[in-house]
Amino acid sequence: MKKKILHLSALIVSLIFISSCSDNDLKYTATVPAAGEFKLTSSVDSMTLHETGAGAHTAIAFQWDSIVYKVSTPVTYTIQIDTLNGNFTSPLEEEIATNKYEISYSDSILNKKSLNLLKLKPDVQNLIQVRIKANLAFGNMPAYSNIKTLKITPYSVRKIAAYLYMPGDVSGGWSNYTTMLCSKENDGKYEGYVQAAEWANFKFTDKSDGSGTFYGSSATLGLSALDASATQWNIWFDAGGYFLVKADLNMMTWSKKAITSFCITGDFNSWSLTANPMTYDAVNKVWTATCDLSNIGYGIQIIANGDWTYKYGINDGSKNSGELTLGGANVVPTLTGSRIVTMDLSHPEKYTYSIK
Q1: How confident is the model over 50-102, as pLDDT tens digits?
Q2: C-alpha 187 chain-centroid distance
Q3: S-S: 54 plus which of 97, 107, 196, 295, CB 3.0-4.6 Å?
Q4: For 3-23, what is each residue's pLDDT tens digit?
Q5: CA distance 317 to 301
Q6: pLDDT digit string (tens) for 102-137?
């Protein structure tokens, strides 16, 4: 009888052990949410965008449901916008911050995206379609919301240069707007050369009187992502130096490329990228070099960072002074001999050079 009790006790302990192992080893498998579980809504179905107050007025706001894949893994949301016949094969995309289930666009930002990225016609009604894409890490297991078809009428943008000002440390104070980038085509893409100290803070804004839209960095998407919302952070330079700065208000991003050198090259120095470096004058914001141009040959170019990708020449046929453009033709000056070559990149709407 004792043996039977012992055997029965051992069996019960074994079953408890097996049950415990099974409970501890439970595995969860991610599953794509069912269709209809994931809904997108918008504040309006039809929009006529206006240039007056475009930066402050909210054109449309989107909201969507949160979804789960039955695993405790963060879900990434991306808004996708396309033309009516685009079929989302190559949509305009913008990633949303984690644990955020809404996004809104001002008239200004939505107008830029409509004209420059979606290529919609201004001043007439267009149809677009919008949906939200959800996925796990690395784009795995995408799920999609319902598709919203919307009417939108963008406004025309005059093809005159537009500016982004940079109040903050790089301009000598938050009430100063002396440092700026330029969009020559007024297409939402800006650039300019900026001298900045390490940790110099600033923001971008589209007006020089403090009344425009301010763009800071995103607290959730990182330093290179622009944010026009009330929760924006300052932007800063994490290293000091001289930079080519670009901003894209279509994609809401900005970037900086450190410029460590400019040099003059040409037949006169056998196209050397080191023989005639330029020196930066931080007070007058110009680069200069003295060159012996006795053998001018096919002319000269100005090269940044020893990289032919960043070569500056001319498109206007100028000889001894004029406008510099990236990828332009050789400068063939009429002034030869020992000359001072000066380059001024402080005015982003027009980079210039002179030979004296």
Answers
A1: 998 888 899 999 999 888 787 767 888 999 999 998 989 999 999 998 778 99
A2: 14
A3: 107
A4: 444 444 444 334 433 444 444
A5: 13
A6: 999 999 999 999 999 999 999 999 999 999 998 887
Q: How many CB atoms lie within 10 A of CB 223?
A: 15
- Please calculate the CA angle 186-234-189 and round it to the nearest 5 degrees: 15
296, with CB counted inside 10 A (0-12, 13-18, 19+), is buried
What is the spatial distance between Cα 332 and Cα 330, in angstroms, rounded to a whole number?
6
Burial of 166 (0-12, 13-18, 19+ CB in 10 A): buried
- At 21 the three-state DSSP class reads helix
Would 40-153 and 162-258 be classified into the same CATH topology? yes
Other beta carbons within 10 Å of 108:
24
Contact 247, 254 (CB under 8 A): yes
Strands 40-42 and 180-183: unpaired
Contact 262, 304 (CB under 8 A): yes
In 10 A of CB 353, how many CB atoms? 25
For the chain, give the number of residues. Answer: 356
User: If one looks up domain 162-258 in CATH, what number appears?
Assistant: 2.60.40.3620
Q: Which two tokens stand for residue 182?
A: 């330029």
Domains in the chain: boundaries: 40-153, 162-258, 262-355
* CA pair distance 8, 122, nearest whole angstrom: 84
Q: Which CATH architecture has domain 40-153?
A: Sandwich (2.60)
pTM of the model: 0.77
